[in-house]
Design brief:
Blueprint: E1 6-9, E2 15-18, H1 27-43, H2 68-74, E3 75-80, E4 86-90, E5 110-112, H3 116-126, H4 130-142, H5 148-164, E6 171-176, H6 182-194, E7 199-202, H7 207-217, H8 225-229
Parallel strand pairs: 3-6, 6-7
Antiparallel strand pairs: 1-2, 3-4, 4-5
Helix pairs in contact: 4-5
Length: 232
């Protein structure tokens, strides 16, 4: 409510102006604000933050002396290079048992891409069997046939069963370089989910990996200052 000035006619034909205090009552607006807040709370979709779990490689040992054979058979290393280039190699560049060293072999490092027919297609082939089972669970989850808790439980059972089988499931190690972009890392992490990789980790690139990139690309920018000083 508000009050305004009121004019009054007095004697002699002169108008007299009666001044009154202007007062605005905002009490009804409080109720209106509460109604609007309640309306938007019920009508606005509350978005849950999307998170991504990064599974670290297992440290469990196999039936061999130190389990390195099993790790090497399932190990895949992705090197995120500059200019949206992606490289990978299988196993370990240097075998401590046999002494075999692949750091001087540029063919040990394979060229791939972020396209569906690149690293995605390769990882699906390496994860055959497990990939199809997890995909079926994803369809059931999407159709609301199973809750998220059951999806996670059954997924873990599938991964554990794959580890016990004769075919070693892939363990992917992601190593970004200083010249890769944030988008490259996000794209690779998306591929881990798309291809249903059970164990993967983002770790620092080693000097050996830098040397492999140098041998493959002949680009000295991947070398450390110490490696450049040593003439590598």
């Amino acid at each position: 409510m508000s009050e305004v000035q009121v004019k009054e006619s007095g004697g002699g034909g002169k108008n007299k102006q009666k001044k009154q205090t202007l007062r605005v009552d905002f009490t009804p607006m409080v109720d209106m604000n509460m109604l609007l807040i309640t309306f938007f709370m019920f009508c606005t979709t509350l978005l849950k933050p999307q998170t991504m779990n990064i599974n670290m490689p297992s440290n469990e040992k196999s039936d061999t002396e130190d389990g390195s054979d099993v790790k090497a058979s399932g190990a895949i290393t992705l090197l995120l290079a500059g200019d949206d280039q992606l490289y990978y190699y299988e196993g370990m560049p240097k075998d401590e048992k046999t002494g075999e060293d692949h750091y001087d072999d540029p063919n040990f490092l394979h060229v791939s891409s972020y396209d569906p027919n690149g690293i995605e297609e390769y990882l699906i082939k390496r994860n055959v069997g497990t990939y199809e089972q997890i995909q079926e669970l994803k369809v059931q989850l999407q159709n609301q046939e199973i809750p998220d808790s059951i999806f996670r439980q059954k997924s873990k059972e599938i991964y554990d069963k794959a580890k016990e089988g004769s075919r070693t499931p892939p363990t992917v190690m992601i190593k970004p370089t200083d010249f890769s972009s944030y988008k490259n890392l996000v794209d690779v992490l998306d591929e881990m989910l798309v291809t249903n990789i059970g164990a993967y980790a983002v770790i620092d690139i080693t000097d050996g990996d830098r040397y492999l990139l140098y041998k493959k690309t002949n680009d000295g920018k991947y070398l450390t200052p110490e490696q450049v000083a040593q003439g590598k």
